[in-house]
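Protein data:
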Amino acid sequence: MSPSERRSEILHLLCKRRHETAINLAVEFGVSERTIRADLVILSCYYPIQIARGRFGGGAHLPDWFHMENRTLSPQQQALLMRLRQSLAGDDLQVMNSILAQFALYWEYR
């Protein structure tokens, strides 16, 4: 599982559970707590994930008002758009970049 796929799964789990600890997520995904914490920091840049420290009540929380609308692209969808992007210029390229930035979970300009 790639980091992007793992982050997408973490987000979907948080949408269902609303709260989860880094320890539980690390066990569930078979990675270290440090990796999960890094994933949560990245996700919190794009989504309203609140990260709290502490033995009781710590972990990642999603506010009750946030509900995931299918805002992520599958790896295949993202790869197709990246290939199509290479043939674009001008305003069309800007539109494609905005689509990728809005719907891809983690995307860098290449």
